[in-house]
Amino acid sequence: MILHVKEAKYLHDYVIWIKFSDGIEGEIDLEQELTGEIFGPLKDKKLFKSFRVDPVLETIVWENGADLAPEFLHDNIQIPA
What we know:
The protein has 81 residues and is an alpha+beta fold. The chain has a single domain, classed as NE0471 N-terminal domain-like, CATH 3.30.2020.10. The chain has 3 helices and 5 strands, in the order E-E-E-H-H-E-E-H. The strands form 2 sheets. It has a 3-stranded antiparallel beta sheet with strand order 1-2-3, covered by helices on one side. Strand 4 and strand 5 form a beta hairpin. The N and C termini lie far apart (24 Å).
């Protein structure tokens, strides 16, 4: 099954709520992923909050060109109990 991000919203700090095409939804904390040339600038919370779900890539993307594979997000999501 090919995964797609259907919805996403900012919650707090570096935590995003995500809903996937397979119906799974939950939270992911991306703070530890914000390193390097592309992701490092996202430590600025104003920039981090500016993500959107790209209708073509069907994942979350940022204005600076950063994006994360839906499979990575899905594998690391915390599903509420």
